[in-house]
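dumping the sequnces here before i forget
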Amino acid sequence: MKILVGGGCGYIGSHTVVELLTSGYEVVIVDNFYNSSRDVLDRISKICDKKISFYEGDICDKEFLRDVFSKEKIDSVIHFAGYKAVGESVAKPIMYYRNNIDSTLTLLEVMEEYGVYNLVFSSSATVYGVPEKLPLREDFPVSATNPYGYTKLMIEQILKDVSYSNDKWRIVLLRYFNPIGAHESGLIGENPDGIPNNIMPYIMRVASGEYDKVHVFGNDYDTKDGTGVRDYIHVVDLAKGHIKAIEYLEKNGKISIFNLGTGMGYSVLDLIETVKKVNNVSVPYVIESRRPGDIATCYADCSLANKELGWTAEKGIEDMCRDAYNFVLKNK
Ligand code: WQD
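..and the predicted 3d for all of it:
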């Protein structure tokens, strides 16, 4: 089985490629290095010692994508490629809609041209908007509070409509909660360009001494210690969920939606204290005002993925914090 991975040099994409290769799949990566780097390819090969086909280019480029599909006999596609910074999406909505929607439509057109109908899409818990009830279930109402979230919501709708239009389509939407951590080798991990938007890469830069303190966005939420609570999931567990989704596609048509989380919520201060404890580092922080658009609490009901995919997250918060810092130490 040959899997095309769009955005396969990125944080979640690279970890999924490792799990695909380890599970015996052939992998073709397409990436334009917008938020990733070429050396990830060598690092994946070091971990897996397997051949990877790679094509540098933009999924929005139809001729480029046609060239890939004409050269490679693709069985299924995993689509990670997309811009994902909430704040940036508010400042640059046209760029976000153009890239995230256009790349998906181009991919669907070329897949159909080449008779490839199996697709796993990287969605996000952000489509739940401001939760009315917790834990979040896949049949809960969806909404968005920023252009990034709207692109995920719109792409979910596009994929639902596409799956209803032709029985040949087999589509799985995976709603990620908060992926953190890194592969145990320390060869691949999360290393965003510039100042990280997300909490864990920011904590890592404070722990390594690159930054002086963490800015905690609000401690007046209705949570156990007033700081935001999220369902953090180890990126390797998340990657394994994609393997289960590919296996599921072989047996199930139409479209299915699954939460990929742990079902456990941890606060910002929980995360900081765990990083300090497991790595024996200091992580100074300062409490600041809330970040606009943030919600208080978000965590998953993962029973559907457990039941239908036979998938459960196995790693705990300490593993996530230890592996995240191991990646930092190995790449100083
Ligand atoms: C987590 C908690 C912040 C930074 C977003 C997207 C989601 C996915 C992951 C792409 C919150 C607090 C953060 C900081 C802080 N994106 N925080 N100081 O907002 O839950 O989810 O990123 O796939 O779709 O919505 O993640 O890591 O930004 O924030 O206090 O410097 O950390 O307020 O409570 P978020 P996050």
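The chain is about 40% helix and 20% strand.
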